[in-house]
Amino acid sequence: MPEAARQVDRALGEFGMGGRVRIMPASTRTAAEAAATVGCAVEQIAKSLIFRGGASGQAILVIASGGNRVDEKKLAVAAGEKIERADADFVRARTGFAIGGVPPLAHAGPLLTFIDADLMALATLWAAAGTPHAVFPLTPAELCRITQGRISDLKRAS
């Protein structure tokens, strides 16, 4: 298991969820790839998106349902400041992980975290586990517990 995935697995163990990281044979970098590889609906993928606070420079994590796009205006209101898209260097520096494998926990530092309200209606979720080939299953309640994120409606209208 790659070190990044082991790091996530250790963090899950600290929450009483040890041994759950799964290394997959195909890419899980995007929500669509993850759903196809895991064999679940794309909505069950809890994708981690990192934004940057425009004034504060803080890292903001949005854990969104794989089928949803984030409304950046709604996120700015929730975060209390304008937001910017984070580049790959910012994501790695603030989370410790590369884009395509950012998990909802085990980050390099604290993140302001928001959880897509649509995830709360699902029985099982799948999240990235540190690499583009690693995932782990969890429930919405477990996601809330391990992230301490705020459940929010940040979905962009279709």
Would you write up a description of this structure?
With 158 residues, the protein is an alpha/beta fold. The chain has one domain: YbaK/aminoacyl-tRNA synthetase-associated domain (YbaK protein, Alpha-Beta Complex). Helices cover 28% and strands 24% of the residues. It has helices at residues 3-14, 31-38, 72-79, 88-95, 140-147, and strands spanning 22-23, 45-53, 59-65, 83-85, 112-116, 125-128, 134-138, 150-152. Strands 1, 2, 3, 4, 5, 6, 7 and 8 form an eight-stranded mixed beta sheet that branches. It starts with a helix and ends in a 6-residue tail after the last strand. The mean pLDDT is 96.
Secondary-structure map:
Elements: H1 3-14, E1 22-23, H2 31-38, E2 45-53, E3 59-65, H3 72-79, E4 83-85, H4 88-95, E5 112-116, E6 125-128, E7 134-138, H5 140-147, E8 150-152
Task: Jot down its keywords.
single chain, 158 residues, alpha/beta, YbaK protein, eight-stranded mixed β-sheet, 8 strands, 28% helix
